Amino acid sequence: MLDILKSNWEVLLLGQYPNGPLGGLVLTLILSVLGLALSFPFSILIALGRTSPMRLFRVPTTVVVYIVRGIPLIMLIFWAYFFVPLVIGHSVTGFTTLLCTLVVYESAYLAEVIRAGIESLPRGQIEASRALGLTYLQTVRKVVLPQALYNMLPSIVSQFVSTIKETSLGYVISVQELTFSANQVNNNLLTQPFQVFAILALTYFVVCFILTQFAHRLERRIHHRRAGTFIKRSPADDLLLQSE
Amino acid sequence: MIYFSKVNKWYGEYHALVNVSAQVKQGEVVVVCGPSGSGKSTLIRTINRLEDIKDGEITVNGQDIRGRHLDVNRFRATVGFVFQSFNLFPHLSVLENIVLAPTTVSGMNKAEAKAKALSLLDRVGLKAKASSYPGQLSGGQQQRVAIARALAMSPPVMLFDEPTSALDPEMVGEVLQVMKSLAKEGMTMVCVTHEMGFAREVADTIWFMDKGQLLEVAPPDQFFANPQHPRAKQFLSDLRSH
After folding, report:
1. CB-based contact (8 Å) between B107 and chain A?
2. I want to staple A157 with a disulfide (CB 3.0 to 4.6 A). Which of A201, A215, A229, B136 is the partner?
């Protein structure tokens, strides 16, 4: 396995770059970061619509979320791949197709995460803010979202982790991300599919594991800053604090 | 300053406020008391429209609070409200909690808002806690910060909705102390509270409520010595028996 890694790490990391298009793990990460970052503003708007008391906003956003969540991602990718060029009249790159699909898909999922964050805030927070004279939007911006997003930070990171794995579906429309690169390596070697795909799995795992750990750290740090303590606590203490 | 005229409110079938008519004068301290579920909190929450009323009229400073042209946000900024559960914003420091409304709602500049916040914190005895987070404070301290936060908008009226009910007994005093000093400075206050000692000492008028009705309005001496309504007599004798 080490041999394979030694002679193919450039392809796995960068794809054909610099002799061809960028690919591999770097492309996977670029797609994931862009996918999540671009879907973030949409997901906030959808979440606000979903929690709105006004039907005008609540109904359409709910419909969008239910439709997107009820369809496999690969179906969305196919639609974007085959129909978008027909609609706009010229072809788009696989990268753009996948990115747009990811944004649609992640927006719906992330919106549900953010909605949960908003709904888990005590009612008193919103009442206190409105009682001080803040408008609905000021309340959302200064009181609701900072808390909801913070509380949902671990879920947002796990959504990011899902996104990383979901980019592998770009393979079917020849986006040269990590899975595509691994398959190229496998086609070159022909005889060692188990090892190649083990490397692929391990790479995904390591990246995702590091991210999850990072989320944990981040969460604890902000938590301690808020509680004013930088001392390490046992999980039991954390539970106790949260229950107060 | 505050007028209630035939105010009615229902929660579904339940008649939560029944024909309440009353007034609070400038500088008056009103303590609303009565058994739980009698509509005290509902009444006080209608004043800044945290609860809507079904019919009747409420005016504050001469403005009809359900008026068509009333900017509800601007109006709410003129009514300080203190909650039973403090409701400080946990993601903001004590100072940020207090400057939030002045900087966001009335566009006060940061430095001015900060100076004002610090002087308010000084007044409630918590200047040293300016950079702490609410989670680091005791209940009594949090409630004092919440009072400072409400005062930051310089409201002519302060409403207190059971401000000491969620506190450990030893912290009740510090909060009542702050409220007393406010009353002394001539603040118009409406307080829902079970602290009868406070009511006796600080209130100008006691409102006694039961089942959504305002049954008795009297100065404290008269109310405690010689309540008129049988339900009020019952309530006071129940209190004394503990």
Report:
1. no
2. A215
Strand order in the sheet with B188-192: B79-82, B157-161, B188-192, B29-33, B205-210, B213-218
Inter-chain CB proximity B89 and A143 less than 8 Å: yes
Residues in chain A: 244
Residue A230 has pLDDT above 50, yes or no: no
pLDDT at residue A232, rounded to an integer:
42
Averaged over A88-99, what is the pLDDT?
90
Residue of A nearest to B47 (CA): A131
Q: pLDDT tens across B10-29, in order?
A: 999 999 999 999 999 999 99
The residue segments making up the domain with residue A132 are 2-243
Number of domains composing chain A: 1
Q: How far apart are CA B63 and CA B100, in angstroms?
A: 26
Give the CATH number, domain containing residue A196. Answer: 1.10.3720.10
- A134 inside 8 A of chain B by CB: yes
Query: pTM for this one?
Result: 0.86
Chain-centroid distance, C-alpha A113: 11
Q: B79 forms bridges with which residues in the sheet?
A: B157
- Give the HSE-up count for residue B127: Cα atoms under 13 Å, Cβ half-sphere: 7
